[in-house]
Amino acid sequence: MAGVNKVILVGNLGADPEVKYLEGDKAVAKLRLATTESYKDRNGNRVDQTEWHDLEMWDGQAKIAEQYLKKGSQLYVEGKIKTDSWQDEQGQNRYRTKIRVLSFTMLGGKPEGMGGGQAPNAASTANPKPAATSGGGTNSSPDLVLDDADDDLPF
């Protein structure tokens, strides 16, 4: 019978991704993801239990992580468990378990500093103007909202 090695995690990054470039334009990203479970103990007090997971992303995913993910980013991750083993200087066998990410989805909004000079959610706080419409009435393209207030173009 075949086994199943599948992990699904939803959590927040504890630090910015560490990306290394290897030979042949290969990239690998290492990330730390925190997942927190909350429950009430016998006395009715809320208890938070946080687990830390080491994630590994390769190539295209690593480049996306480097460009878009920051400390605090919320992620949905699907992957598989991998265990690395090696011997340390004293000859002791060491093991490290990590999650090899197969796919991920960025959750939540843009992290701070990712707005390209605009405030987060700038579209939802802008003052919309009435849309310009053509007289046809059967226009299948979306309405275009024009805002000339910040136009620096000389024409």
* Mean pLDDT, all residues: 79
Main beta sheet strand tally, sense and closure: 5 strands, mixed, barrel
**Shape designation:** globular
| Number of strand segments | 6
Distance between the termini: 71 Å
Which sequence of strands runs across the widest sheet? Answer: 1-3-4-6-5
Q: State the helicity in percent bands.
A: under 10%
Q: H/E element string? A: EEEEHEEH
In short:
The protein is mainly β.
Structure in words:
Helix content is 9%, strand content 45%. The protein has 155 residues and is mainly beta. It has a five-stranded mixed beta barrel with strand order 1-3-4-6-5. The longest helix is centred in the middle third of the chain and has 10 residues, at 59-68. The protein is globular. The model is unreliable at 116-142 (pLDDT under 50).
Name its key features.
155 residues, mainly beta, five-stranded mixed β-barrel, 6 strands
Explain the layout of strands and helices.
Blueprint (H helix, E strand, L loop, with lengths): L6 E7 L4 E5 L3 E15 L5 E13 H10 L5 E14 L5 E15 L14 H4 L30
Parallel strand pairs: 4-6
Antiparallel strand pairs: 1-3, 1-5, 2-3, 3-4, 5-6
